[in-house]
Amino acid sequence: MLSRVADTIYWMNRYIERAENYARFMDVNFNLSLEMPPDASEQWKPVVVATGDWDLFESLHKTAEKKKVIYFLGFDKNNPNSIYSCIVNARENARAIRPEITKEVWEQVNYLYYLVKSGVEKKRWQSKDPRNFFTEVKKGCQLLYGIFDATISRTDGWHFGKIGQLIERSDKTSRVLDVKYHILLPTQESVGSPLDLMQWAALLKSVSAYDMYRKKYGKLNSSNITQFLILDTDFPRSMLRCLLQAEQSLQAITGHAEGHTNSAERRLGMLKSQLEYADINDIFSNGLHEYLDNFQKKLNEVSVAIFETFFSIENIMNRN
Amino acid sequence: MQKINFDSYETTGFFDEMFDGDKKVRDHYSLFKDRLEKINWKKLNFLQHSTDRAQLSLGMTFNVYSDNQGIERILHLDIIPRIISGEDWDFLERGLTQRIRALNMFIDDLYNDQKVLKDKIIPKEMILSSETYLKQCIGLKPPENIWSHITGTDLIRGGDGKYFVLEDNLRCPSGVSYMLENREILKRTFPELFEKLQVRPIYNYSHYLRDMLESLTPVTPASIAVLSPGTYNSAYFEHAYLAQQMGAELVEGRDLVVKDDFVYMTTTKGLQRVDVIYRRVDDDFIDPEVFNKGSLLGTPGLFRAYQKHNVVLVNAPGTGVADDKAVYAYIPRIIKYYLGEDILLPNVQTYICAEEKDCKYVIENIHNLVIKQTDASGGYGMLIGPKSTKKEQAEFVAKIKHNPRKYIAQPVINLSRVPTLTEGSIEGRHVDLRPYVLYGKEIKIIPGALTRVALKKGSLVVNSSQGGGSKDTWVLDNNLKE
């Protein structure tokens, strides 16, 4: 398939996945803010920090108030990663590759576009309870995943889309986990306190992991939660599971069942192995934040390698 | 709720396609009228609303150039169809076939033997001095000697209902996706209208188009691409639509490279050959090595590959010379010259400002004429005499005097009218008609067309960039009897 088209599908799916994740973050954090004890301050800054756009936020706003954060992450055109921007970009991408996708996929992307456009027009961030909006976005994205899987042939385009989605998902799970690092508990003794556990529960919900985690472990415990979100091989949003699936799609594209012949396969294979052989205690003793930070860097290198291997026209010309 | 009726519908002053002068319904509209009158107003308005929504959901949107970026519009689809009798259509088919055959012979002649110039059928300097005559194309021999494989001729009907050709559109005519999607939308929103009317089907256009493109190359299976300027182009929806319908690759100039005079697409698995390009990029922009040097939309070397017959371009570059508005006036003579036949589908009478006598007449009668710039389209660069101010007329006179070669004039033709849904009623609105003609080994005309309608009351300008809309166009079968 055309390199540009592959690149465009890859990013279309990343944008949709990002929008869905942001919608969930905000829904969950809004819930959490309702349960906070009156003496604890609301925690909206960590959500922004987790998205990696704190610098931009700070340059636009003085304080991380609820409404400002909701606007910035949900509706702000100046934030290239806001839900609004992601959906607009996803739609532009879908339009550019219209012949590659089905009418059903296109119509759902278009539906999402009109949803966020009207959200901006109606200033939904000002409403008392913006959760309905985020729920609609989340469901709209999830419906799109379903339509994408149910109507698109399993050719390279589908696999490139899948890789984009899985890399984004894995990145977002790692960032959500990192939120805990940025949340300040009142005192050190609060670890294991009801407030602490409430935050861990919220964190699981942010990546739709609460139910599946409960089923597996029953009780909330920081070590198990971290294990579950990083290393679980069954949960579809764990960092490792995402990489395993992305690798399958990459192999379907290159036709290599074994062995790594290009830099994309090599980089992804290395990162996956690192997780496969990781031990949760080592991760904690070396520092969870540092571990996640490093993971995000390496994941970014995978994305770059995919670009260079499949999308870069210079590289294609040099190979021929 | 009140049912629809035509009691207060005005038909005076113009040719109305549904009613005759005594307001008697025309035969080919009568069954349709019975059916429409069974529907109530509320439902009709609801259906019109659903139609708008369907268009948005399908992404049938475009940006108007003069608008602020980011404003998307739909081409308003009026839910009341325009109906053409089978008899009229069969005549149009004959007329178009004749015209397109002659025009292709004419273009081929201009770039090769130039017999038509030597025999002084058309002034030599008019062609050779024209910007639309591409010197780079001299000596070219496209497959089957056909230059314009896809044509979208603009037709109008005058006061007595007679059909005229208004423009030939031999370059990259657009709108066919609207013809196809309008039908799909109408079938879905208004199925009861179609019953028993025997509307000729048009769905196989994309199939014919692909057949035609394949017929131009000996390579099988042929690798076919639609070349688009990209998503910001106002006709992008159509480029994507046709690529998808034909199962062709939708490419932009940056997706193509020319290597050893062959054209390739850059794919995730390396370079892949392209045999036929249905290009929707204007001549001037297809290859910066040969035409506009600053073009970012094209591919360097594309024209060279074409000259060596390593790729087919559809339409061929250079066809613009024959749909120049000044050349238009000579078409009756051109048809006679190449085919020895009289023109079937007449031209609108045209005054050529480059000719002294005509120019004088135009300047004296500017208030009664439509003035058109020969190298503009889309309703831009024109003056409608009777609707213009003295100041505007004076400006055009100055422009004509400055560069007469650039202007032609035609009498104002009161385009025919078709019932159209307006706020709360049905009123007559002016329309034109754009059928699409394919020409590979033979000429194929799909029995349908894009009807463009001037939505503003009294307006004669149907262009989408100037507030026009569209209608589904039904060609009925001949033997319609009930």
Protein model, in words:
The complex is a heterodimer of chains A (320) and B (482). Chain A has one domain (3-319). In chain A, helix 1 (3-35) packs parallel to helix 8 (156-182) and helix 5 runs antiparallel to helix 6 (103-121). Chain A is built from 16 helices and no strands. With 320 residues, chain A is mostly helical. The two termini of chain A are 16 Å apart. Chain A has helices spanning 3-35, 45-51, 54-60, 66-74, 83-96, 103-121, 131-151, 156-182, 194-206, 210-217, 222-231, 239-254, 263-276, 280-286, 288-311, 313-319. Among the domains of chain B are: 204-314, 3-Layer(aba) Sandwich (Rossmann fold), CATH 3.40.50; 351-411, Dna Ligase, domain 1, CATH 3.30.1490.270. In chain B, strands 3, 4, 18, 19, 20 and 21 form a six-stranded mixed sheet that branches. Chain B starts with 26 loop residues before the first helix and ends in a 7-residue tail after the last strand. Chain B is an alpha+beta fold and 482 residues long. Classes of the chains: A mainly alpha (320), B alpha+beta (482). At the A-B interface, helix 1, helix 5, helix 6 and helix 16 of A face helix 2, helix 8, strand 8 and strand 10 of B.
Layout: helices, strands, pairs:
The complex is a heterodimer of chains A (320) and B (482).
Chain A: H1 3-35, H2 45-51, H3 54-60, H4 66-74, H5 83-96, H6 103-121, H7 131-151, H8 156-182, H9 194-206, H10 210-217, H11 222-231, H12 239-254, H13 263-276, H14 280-286, H15 288-311, H16 313-319
Helix pairs in contact in A: 1-4, 1-5, 1-7, 1-8, 1-9, 2-8, 5-6, 6-7, 8-9, 8-12, 8-15, 12-13, 13-15
Chain B: H1 27-36, H2 41-58, E1 61-62, E2 73-74, E3 77-84, H3 86-111, H4 115-118, H5 124-128, E4 150-152, E5 154-157, E6 163-167, H6 176-189, H7 205-214, E7 224-227, H8 236-246, E8 249-251, E9 256-259, E10 262-267, E11 270-273, E12 276-279, H9 302-307, E13 312-314, H10 325-328, H11 331-339, E14 351-352, H12 356-364, E15 369-373, E16 382-384, H13 390-402, E17 407-411, E18 417-422, E19 425-439, E20 443-454, E21 468-475
Parallel strand pairs in B: 3-21, 7-8, 7-12, 12-13
Antiparallel strand pairs in B: 1-2, 4-19, 5-6, 9-10, 10-11, 14-17, 15-16, 15-17, 18-19, 19-20, 20-21
Helix pairs in contact in B: 3-11
